[in-house]
């Protein structure tokens, strides 16, 4: 993975986009990592993996784990989860 300063990313934008097609590009500002540029293909793979994780978590849910939506929001408004 390559790392570019924010200024380099701005001045070498086209090159950065080409590089991001094959590997993530880290953007650093004032010595701190602030962003990563990845290809659309990699982004889609990450989103698909997140969706699979969400689906897996709901596959084995039981009735006892469910709660009425209005009750939950009432509890939230009352400060129960603060």
UniProtKB/TrEMBL annotation:
Q: Tell me what organism the protein belongs to.
A: Rheinheimera tangshanensis
Give the function comment from the record: Antitoxin component of a type II toxin-antitoxin (TA) system.
Q: Which SUPFAM superfamilies match?
A: YefM-like (SSF143120)
Gene3D superfamilies tied to this protein:
YefM-like domain (3.40.1620.10)
Q: Tell me where the transmembrane regions lie.
A: none
Q: Which domain of life is it from?
A: Bacteria
**Family statement:** Belongs to the phD/YefM antitoxin family.
Name listed for the protein in its UniProt record: Antitoxin
The record's section on InterPro entries has: Antitoxin_Phd/YefM, YefM-like_sf
């Amino acid at each position: 993975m390559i790392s570019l300063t924010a200024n380099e990313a701005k001045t070498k934008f086209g090159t950065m986009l080409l590089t991001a097609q094959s590997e993530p590009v880290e953007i650093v500002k004032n010595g701190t990592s602030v962003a990563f540029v990845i290809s659309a293909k990699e982004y889609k793979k990450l989103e698909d993996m997140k969706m699979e994780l969400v689906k897996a978590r709901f596959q084995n849910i039981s009735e006892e784990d469910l709660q009425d939506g209005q009750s939950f929001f009432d509890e939230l408004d009352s400060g129960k989860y603060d």
